[in-house]
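hey so u asked for the seq, here:
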Amino acid sequence: MNTKILDNILLALVIIGAINWGLIGFFRFDLIAFLFGNMSWLSRVIYALVGISGVYLISAFGRIRSMKDA
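ran it, structure tokens below
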């Protein structure tokens, strides 16, 4: 899979996670739990994918810095 496509998919997941955390912080409303059930297997998979996406996107900082140096 092309790295740019993977980066875009993972960035979308991280944005979904950020929106969900904003809803939790401001309104005490967990959108993922509302849509897929409170800690159901599907919601846990979504939470895990968002977390893995965030950890992977840490590498984007290194790639951006190396592009600036080139």
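Residues 3-27 form the longest helix (25 residues). The radius of gyration is 15 Å.
lmk if thats what u needed
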